[in-house]
Amino acid sequence: MAAEQKFTQQTWPESPEQATLEGKNKFLGFWLFLGGETVLFASLFATYLALKDSVPSDSHAKATDLFELPLVFLMTMLLLTSSLTSVFAMYHMKNYNFKKMQTWLFITVALGLGFLGCEIYEFNHYYHEYKHTFTSSAFGSAFYTLVGFHGGHVVFGLSWIIALMIRNARRGLNLYNAPKFYLASLYWHFIDVVWVFIFTVVYLMGMVG
Amino acid sequence: MSTIAHTQKRGFAGTVWEYLTTVDHKKIAILYLLAGGFFFIVGGIEAMMIRIQLAVPNNDFVSAGLFNEIITMHGTTMIFLAAMPLLFAFMNAVMPLQIGARDVAFPFINALGFWLFFFGGLFLNLSWFLGGAPDAGWTSYASLSLASEGHGIDFYALGLQISGFGTLMGGINFLVTIINMRAPGMTYMRMPLFTWTTFVASALILFAFPPLTVGLFMLIFDRMFGSGFFDVAMGGNTIIWEHFFWIFGHPEVYILVLPAFGIFSEIFPTFSRKRLFGYSSMVFATVLIGFLGFMVWAHHMFTTGLGPIANAIFAVATMAIAVPTGIKIFNWIMTIWGGSIQFTVPMLYAIAFIPSFVMGGVTGVMQAAAPADYQLHDTYFIVAHFHYVIVGGIVLGLIGGAHFYWPLMFGTMLSEKLGKITFVLFLVGFHLTFFIQHFLGLMGMPRRVWTFLPGQGLETGNLISSIGAAFMAVGIIIMLINIVITQKNNVQVGRDPWKDGRTLEWALPSPTPFYNFKQLPLVRGLDPFWIEKMEGKTEMTPAEPIGDIHMPNNSFIPFVISLGLFIAAFGAMYQMDDKAWAIPVLVIGMAVTFGAMLVRSIKDDHGFHIHKEDLLEEDGKGGTR
Q: Which of A105, B62, B368, B370 is the most exposed place for a label (fewest CB within 10 A)?
């Protein structure tokens, strides 16, 4: 099956992301990569839990002083919704509806950018209000590293999806780019799952002290 | 569309360009072998300097500070830049052929993995010329490494980070290759043991390297960007580094030794002319070692003070690993038992490996007893133990494997005579160097000391140890001479040079065509080539008619992506000196890397096809033998 073959909605395979050997390999390889990423974030979570509220003196802010749930709730909703919209995008990808896929991906990107904006505001807020920085305490280092690594993944994921959308805007779907779209959305889901844990471990558990 | 013209002769510059851009696993194997061999020699020179310094008491061959740098770089170089790449060389050269694949799953990523490793290793070793090498030991415990002056530790952290990314990618590539690319009939329980050990080692890489990545990031942040993970004054905790280092570091031991076990498991049946005894228990033991390997990291930290319960649990888990390892040892012995044995050079290494490695294993179980470890910790007993495991297990496997697979990789056969001389010198030298160190340790000689005093009973032992090291060095020099002579004579030995090859890689013509298998072979059982031979055939039965073969294009992008990180690392390191150019260099380096990734993403690369007609035409010329 040539990668650039033209399809119609009828001839488009059921799992286009795995219809070629390259696609199959990418699919499996990416899942394995996400396994490694899981260990990476597990290590960051472990570090954060070990260093939570570990500050040099009482003048430094602790988790209960810092976090405010309304903002974090908004961020969670933005990211969870963006995961849902990326599912819609993949639904349309599997139905060979390129336009609708692009639309839903665009909404995903917009929600992701909203999340990123909130995160920048949040970090800025901690910095100005509480002097809680990357270098102020071990707690600060662990917090910004864990949440910042997640933020970095969001930036990478957004750049990836945007690059794919622009690159393929004119030529539509084929079996060469279908796995790429699928993997980008898989990556986006993973980012979302990590956020669910950050929301629980960092923010909710931070609120109860 | 290029076709078989790929195999045409080129000039020197053309060859260099071919290797800079290659995505062929057989050529990447040669790159790994060259780079790993180079770093092996560098690490070996460092080892010799250690033994010269310690040959006599109160020696001042090197200064105390330089000695710290040498031991650190010896350990780091040998583990990360010599042993791993050399094993990766054999994995790349052999594994895809063993499972009957035309290529690896991700040829591009495979090349990227090599170049990342290479630039990381280069960066680390540049420290010698740019103000001093790392000096906190290969474990680089944070309480030491944060206090280390100069940029040595920064070279360590950044260099290992870059080469670690490469290793991770290599691991994922091997996993997917083994899962998705096996030839028809090659079920999991028909895979050769070397493929199995590559598979398990790759899975260990996938789960063991991310904790190292995190630990190195924290070290980089603490030293270069002012964070406080390990800085107790800021509320940090220096033990976190120890945990992450060993959560990575202990599986790393198995990442190294399992593929060496795999090489021996290929050598024993070949030269005993018997199938591997207890194949399924070997597979089971491999997987179990891989699993248990993650449960034992804190046995490196018994004296850290984790408490009796943690120490007891990790002690028991550590002892448990001796069980699957014992299964393997007995299976190898039973494979030789009653076989028609040929004492070729690879077989000599394999036979010498059994007692050598068992000694390393036994001292390992001794140290697993936590109370005993309090006595043995940080003495030369530990140095003796892990050199018995690493040299007696891995290095014997690497040298034996090099002799065994040389005809597969280069089409020539290393001299058996010189090989045997190397073997005797190396084995004698190895035991001479390290056996006595057990006793030096028990007598109280601490590890990592720069020198020792006369009159404490340590003189004779250290002198013997240094003499042994010289034997090993001479052995390796003879092996290098052997390689040069062999390649200069360039006598091509053709298909199945050991005559008793059992697995698919020996069924291929020599030199191996760049598409490996013209027709995918039909695998009818364990040791598929042996099965065909027993039925009087000389080739594998094909599983498909001759057809077009799809191949990937060469690419220069892996080199550029790795070069970008290499440049960025200089920026990250020198910005802590407030150098004005540092931040721009960091940004430029990252831009090169991400820019190259973007180019890779948006530029279509469909590869090319070798057409059926060309394959048939080549057949007609009879040029495949």
A: B62
- The predicted-structure confidence for B459-473, as pLDDT tens digits, reads as follows 999 999 999 999 999
Provide the pLDDT for residue B2: 42
Residue B563 within any structural domain of the chain: no
SS3 B510: coil
Specify the DSSP class assigned to residue B550.
E
Domain count, chain B: 1
pLDDT of residue B4: 46
Facing residue for B606 by CB, picked from A3, A51, A54 = A3
- Is B588 a domain residue? no
Supply the DSSP symbol for B565.
H
- Cα–Cα dist B69/B141, whole Å: 14
Query: Which residue of A1, A4, A31, A32 is the best one to mutate when testing the B interface, meaning the one whose CB has the most B CBs within 10 A?
Result: A32
The enclosing H or E element of B163 equals helix B152-180
Residues B496 and B479: their CA atoms lie apart, in Å, by: 23
The CATH number of the domain holding residue B416 is: 1.20.210.10
Distance separating alpha carbons of residues B186 and B174, to the nearest angstrom: 16
> Strands, DSSP E only, in chain A?
none
- d(CA B407, CA B270) in angstroms, rounded, equals 15
Task: Give me B134's structure tokens.
Answer: 């790392």
Q: Is the dihedral of CA B47, B52, B57, B62 positive or negative?
A: negative
Residues of A with CB under 8 A from a CB of B: 3-4, 21, 24-25, 28-29, 32-33, 35-37, 39-40, 43-44, 47, 50-51, 54-56, 134-142, 145, 160, 163-164, 167, 176, 180
Check CB contact under 8 Å for A36 and B168.
Answer: yes
CA separation for the pair B402, B411 (Å, rounded): 13
- Among B84, B14, B156, B34, smallest CA distance to B397 is for B84
The neighbouring-strand residues paired with B446 are B379
B585 Cβ contact list (under 8 Å, min separation 6): B567, B568, B570, B571, B574
Closest CA to B206 of B159, B248, B245: B248
Q: What single-letter amino acid sits at B95?
A: M
* Tokens of residue B426, six digits: 């190396």
Look at residue B543 and tell me if it is in a domain. yes
Cβ atoms of B188 and A106 within 8 Å: the answer is: no
Three-class SS of residue B380? helix
- Helix/strand/coil for B140: coil
CA B261 to chain centroid, in Å, comes to 12
The answer to whether position B561 is within a domain reads no
| Whole-complex ipTM | 0.94
**Pick from B172, B225, B602: CB nearest A167:** B602
Q: In whole angstroms, what is the distance from residue B558 CA to residue B26 CA? A: 17
Query: In 3D, which of B568, B580, B527, B613 has the Cα closest to residue B123?
Result: B568
Q: What percent of chain A has pLDDT over 70?
A: 98
Q: B601: which chain A residues are within 8 Å (Cβ-Cβ)?
A: 160, 163-164, 167, 180
Find residue B610's DSSP bridge partners: B549
Tokens of B98: 């063993």
Residue-wise pLDDT tens digits, B282-306: 999 999 999 999 999 999 999 999 9
Q: How many CB pairs under 8 A join A and B?
A: 115
Q: In the predicted model, what is the mean pLDDT of residues A169-179?
A: 91
- What is the C-alpha to C-alpha distance for residues B211 and B203, in angstroms, rounded to an integer? 14
Indicate which of A47, A59, A158, A168 best probes the interface with B, i.e. most B CBs within 10 Å of its own CB: A47
Identify the domain containing residue B186 by its residue range.
3-555+605-621
Helices (H) and strands (E) in chain A, counts: 7, 0
Sort out which chain B residues have CB atoms less than 8 A from A39's CB and list them: 206-207, 210-211
Say if CB A132 and CB B235 are below 8 A apart.
no
pLDDT at A6: 80
Question: Given a cut of 90, is residue B280 above it in pLDDT?
Answer: yes
